[in-house]
Amino acid sequence: MNSSVLTAWIDGVGLLAPGMSDWPTAVSILRGDQSYVTAPSQLPVPSLLPAAERRRASPIVKLVLALGLEACGQSDADPGTLATVFSSSGADGQNCHALCEQLATDDRRISPTRFHNSVHNAAAGYWSIAVKAMTPCQVLSAYDASFGAGLLDALAQLRVDGQPVLLVAYDSQYPEPLFHKRPIPDCGGVAMLLSPIPGPRSLARMTVRLSDQPAARLADDNLEKLRLSIPAMRSLPLMQALAERRVTATVIDYLPPLQLAIDCEPC
Amino acid sequence: MTPLLVSSFTLSTSLGRGLAPTLAGLRAGDSGLRRCTFESVVIDTWAGEVADVDRQTMPDGLADYDCRNNRLALLALEADDFAGRVRQASDRYGARRIGVFLGTSTSGILQTELAYRRRDPQTGALPDDFNYRTTHNGFSLGEFVRRRCALEGPAMVVSTACSSAAKTFAAAARLIACDVIDAALVGGVDSLCLTTLYGFASLELTSRDPCRPYDSARNGLSVAEGAAFALLERTPVSPPAGSLLFLGYGESSDAHHMSSPHPEGLGAQLAMAAALRSAGVSAAEIDYINLHGTATPANDATEGLAVAALFGDQVPCSSTKGATGHTLGAAGGVEALICLLALANGLIPGSPHTGSRDPTIPINYQLTSRQAELRRVLSNSFGFGGSNCSLVFGVAS
C-alpha cells in the first residue's frame, strides 16, 4: 500500500484493565509467566489531586491519571512538559447516564459539575490541571478504532513537532440501560510515552503503517475476549510485543479493513 | 507548517444554508438567533436553530445513522456541491488517501435523551430502535460522513468541547505532512440537544437576550447548531491568485479550570502565538481576528486581554456569534470558514446585537461589517477543559 511509515521510541507504558492492575502485572501475564484471571479493574486513588478533588474524582479521571503517571514514571519526563493525545470511545459512561436520566424527568435542572464533566475531554482537562501542562492536548473518539486513531495522531505530532508525546487510550463502562447498547464490561486503558529519538530508558522502537492485513489475535481466550470488549484493548497485540521484548511484526484493529501494521524492536 | 490549499468548503448555520446566504447575512449584519423553542426545552434564552434539519432523510444504506446531528451533517454536505467536490477528489487521489477529521461535542446525544423518555416501564431498557453506535457515539459523525462520501482513509472525531472543529485542521495537516494521506475532509457538526441547553443554563452562562459579544452589558451566550466542512489538499507550487490557504495552527491548554478560562488568557496567548509561528507570520501581518467571543463576561474579558497582549489595539477583531450563536463543537469550523469568506470577499464581519463595546477591553472591536482588503486572518476557538486552538488562513497573491 502506498503509505508512509511512522516511527517512535517507546519510553514508558501504562496499562490498567480487568485483572491487570499495572504494567508489570500485564508484562507477566502477556509473557505467559502468570495466567490471566479476569477481575474488576482496580483504580488507584489519584495522589496528584488536592484532597477535595481526590474524593470527587470519577473513575475515568482516576483511570487516566493512573495510566499517564505510570507511563511517565518509567522515564525522566516531566508530565507537565508533554504534549498529549487522549482517545476514548465514549469517556465517562456513568456521568452520561446520570444526565440523560435527569433530562428525562420533569426536573431538568442538571448539576453544573455533571455538565462540565460531560465533555469528552473532561479527563484530559483534569490531567492538564493536575500536572500543570499548558501543552497541546488532543482528545479523540473513533468508537472501536479509538486506540488506532490516537496512535496515528500521536505519531504524526511526534514527527511534525519533534517532541515527545504521551498517548492515553481509555474507556469506561456505561451503567444500564446504556450498557445493553454498548456493553463495555469495565474500565481499562493503556498509555505510551513516545519519543522521536532513542533514550536511555527506551523500551522499543516502533514503526507503524496502514495495512489491509487482519488484526493479530491473542492465544489466550480470556485475553482475546478482553481485546475485543474494551476499545483501548485493541492495543493488546502491541502490548504483548512490548512485554515479550522480542522483534515482532503485528497488526492491530483500526477501521477494518484499514488496519495498522506495527513492527516492534526492543532496545 | 507547509501551507495547504482549502480547495472547497461549505457551512450551514442558523444564518443560512451554504456560502451565499451566509455571506449575505454577514454583510447585512443579520442574525440567525431566535427565542429558543427547541423540542420541549423551557429556558428563557435565544438559540440558533438551523432550518429544515428534520426534513432531511438518510440516504439508502445509512438509515441507522438517522439523528439530528447526522441530518444536519447531510444538509450541509449537500450544499455548495461540497459532496460532489469530495467525490472528485476521491477519484483523483483514491478513497484510501483522503482522511476524515471532524469535530463535535455532543454528536447525536439528543437521540439518547429522547430514548430515555421511552424506557421500558418494567425493565428500564431503552427502545429497540435506539442505536448507540450510529447516533449517540462521538464517532457516529465521522463514520456517517466517511460512508456518505465513500472515503476509506484514516478517520477520527475530535471532541475537545468548543475547540473541537478547529483542531481537525491541525490533525489533518499533520497526517498530510507525514504523507499518510493526500487530502482531508475537515470541519465539524454540532446540533441542539437538551444536555447543552440545560447544561449552559445550569452554569448560568446562557443569556436571556441574543448574545452580545464584547458588549459592556454582555450577560451570556446563545447556544446554537451548525455544520462546517472543508477539503484540504497540498498547495500547488504556484497557487493561482486568490487561492485560499490554511497557513498555521496553534494548540494549548489552560491547565486552570474545567469551565472557566485562565484569568489572564495565558492559554489563549500560547495558542495564538503558536499559530503565528506555525504560519511563519508576525502579529503585525494579521489583518483580522475572528474571536471566540462567546459573550460570557469571563470569556470575552480574558480573550480580549490575550489578544491585546499579542496584537495591541489596532487589528480589527470581531466575534460572529451574534450572527450564528455559539455552535459549540462546530464553532471552530464555522468560524474558520467565515474567515475564508472574509478573505475571499474582502469583508470584515461585524457583531450583530453588540450595542456598545466594553471599554475595559483594549482591542479594535468591529461592530458593523465593512469592506477591507485582507491577506491573513486568525480564528480563535476555546473550550471547556481549557482546550485552546487558533488557526491562521491567508489568500495567495
Q: What is the beta-strand fraction of chain A?
A: 15-25%
- Give the strand tally of chain B: 17
Q: Look up the CATH topology of chain A.
A: Peroxisomal Thiolase, Chain A, domain 1
Envelope shape of chain A: globular
The CATH class designation of chain A is Alpha Beta
**What is the helix fraction of residues of chain B, given as a range?**
25-40%
Query: What is the helix/strand order of chain A?
Result: EHHHEHHHEHEHEEHHEE
Termini separation of chain B comes to 19 Å
Number of helices of chain B: 12
Strand order of the largest sheet of chain A: 3-2-4-5-1-6-8-7
Rg of chain A, alpha carbons: 18 Å
Query: Per the principal axes of the C-alpha atoms, what is the gross shape of chain B?
Result: globular
* CATH class annotation of chain B: Alpha Beta
Strands of chain A, count: 8
**Superfamily at the CATH H level of chain A?**
Thiolase/Chalcone synthase
The pair of chains with the biggest contact is: A-B, 64 and 66 residues
Could you tell me the CATH topology label of chain B: Peroxisomal Thiolase, Chain A, domain 1
Number of domains of chain B: 1
Describe this protein's structure.
The complex is a heterodimer of chains A (267) and B (397). By secondary structure, chain A is α+β, with helices and mostly antiparallel strands. Chain A has one domain: Thiolase/Chalcone synthase (Peroxisomal Thiolase, Chain A, domain 1, 3-Layer(aba) Sandwich), CATH 3.40.47. Chain A contains 10 helices and 8 strands. Chain A has an 8-stranded mixed β-sheet with strand order 3-2-4-5-1-6-8-7. In chain A, strand 7 and strand 8 form a beta hairpin. The longest helix of chain A is centred in the middle third of the chain and has 16 residues. Chain A starts with 5 loop residues before the first strand and ends with a strand. In chain B, strands 1, 2, 5, 6, 7, 9, 10, 11, 12, 14, 16 and 17 form a 12-stranded mixed β-sheet that branches. A 3-stranded mixed β-sheet of chain B has the order 3-4-8. With 397 residues, chain B is α/β, with parallel strands linked by helices. Chain B starts with a strand and ends with a strand. In chain B, 31% of the residues lie in helices and 21% in strands. Chain B is built from 12 helices and 17 strands. Chains A and B meet through helix 4, helix 5, helix 6, strand 3 and helix 7 of A and helix 4, helix 6, strand 6, helix 7 and helix 8 of B.
